[in-house]
Amino acid sequence: MQRSDFSEDFVWGTATAAYQIEGAVQEDGRGPSIWDTFSRKPGAVLGGDTGDIADDHYHRFREDVALMADLGVNAYRFSIAWTRVQPTGSGPANQAGIDFYRRLADTLGEHGITPWATLYHWDLPQTLEDTGGWLRRDTALRFAEYAGIAVDRLGDAVSDWITLNEPWCSAFLGYASGHHAPGRHEGSRSLHAAHHLLLGHGHAMTAIRAARPDANAGITLNLYSVRPASGTAEDVDAARRIDGLSNRLFLDPVLRGQYPQDVLNDAGEADWFAENATAEDLALISAPIDFLGINYYSRHTVAAGSAATDASAYPGSESAVMIDTGAPRTQMGWEIHPHGMLDVLEMAHERAPELPLYITENGSAYEDEVSENGNVDDPDRLDYLRAHIDACRQAIERGLPLAGYFVWSLMDNFEWAWGYHRRFGIVHVDYDTQVRTPKASGMWFSRFLGGRIGRRSREGVDETVEVA
Ligand code: FCB
Question: Is 361 a catalytic residue?
Answer without folding.
Answer: yes
